[in-house]
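I'll show a record.
***
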Amino acid sequence: MMRFGGFAVGFAALGLGCGTSPAPADPAAALHESAIVIDGHSDTTPWFQDPEWDFTELHEDGHQDLPRMHAGGLDAQFWSIYLPDTPGDGRAVKLALARIDAVHELVRRHPEEIGLATTAADVRRIVGEGRMASLMGLEGGHMIEDDLSILRTYHALGVRYMTLTHSFHTNWADSSGTSEVPEPVHDGLTPFGEDVVREMNRLGMLVDISHVADATFWDTLAVTRAPVIASHSSVRSVADHPRNLTDDMLRALGENGGVAMLNFYPGYIDPRAVEPLREFMLEIRPEISALYESLADDPIARRRAVSALFRQARAERELPRAPLEVLLDHFDRAIAVAGPDHVGLGADWDGVPSMPEGLEDVSQLPTLTRGLLARGHSEEVVRKVLGENLLRVLASAETVSQRDNVKRDGLSKF
């Protein structure tokens, strides 16, 4: 199956970091080409709202655009619908709806190349047609503004996962934080938070436990009736960061039937980079906060300004990067502890200031496949990690939803 004309052709045409095109007999190239490759988290989404930025053009900056997705053989992407803390009645909803609309508009403008997916079957169909499958994940429960009807509206618009918190607490769930760990407020989920999880199960929306506090993770697993995901989290026993999952969490996630989609950010995965990148983010945070405040109602100008800020920061200093081997250590550990059916990809494209060596952007994803095979993982396991595990979990959530809705409608006797 030649998707997007094949990633080998894409590499040769774009000249993106792979040297010569892989030979047709190359097992890693053949596996990557034939697999359905899905990533769980990208923050490229705000650019879709910028009329001067074209997703279908090759860009020198950032991690992701359609030509580089073609080159990297990435078939399906969950686009993050992310907003910072946005207090005010209805404000978060208004801004989130605008971002969701931008994803729909991207698909509308490029129907020959992109399709909107809301089910596992949609992903398989769209990829089989040679198109890129777009999915959406809401990154932060604050955007439902404590209202289950808003959650249902997001689902109706195509959102298929929600991260229960971002780097700050909601009114019903505690967060892990990012650069700093906030003091717990709820000790996990409140009763309303449990209702949120139950309603997500009923809808068939994946519950995402990336960014949540440890107590929130355990409360979520106690409540959920469907497998959960970590859309972009890595392994704490390899790199000690509160955004990562402990071995106990990985085992529990495997027992739940869920999937840990591993983050690529050096500040989360490389013990040598965690503290320098944490200090960098703390240093630059006041400037970012000022931009968010001054450009609160202009997401296009805000995205341009924040991007320029990071570009300037990278020009002034060399940010730590992780060797590819460190990322592979996370995959090895997650596969060993959670199990090969419970690991996937959640790179955090365009949401972090640096990526590992050899994976500087999405065009270089075949390097990961080659690395996993070199570490001794079978082709079957690698195919699962690249996308089949996430498709299974998405289908499982759909099955739980169908069962719950049959019972709710009083039809269980049939």
Remarks:
- The domain at 33-275+321-404 is CATH 3.20.20.140 (TIM Barrel).
- Residues 43 and 243 are 17 Å apart (CA to CA).
- The longest helix spans residues 379-408.
- Strands lie at 38-42, 76-82, 114-116, 132-139, 159-163, 206-208, 229-230, 259-262, 343-345.
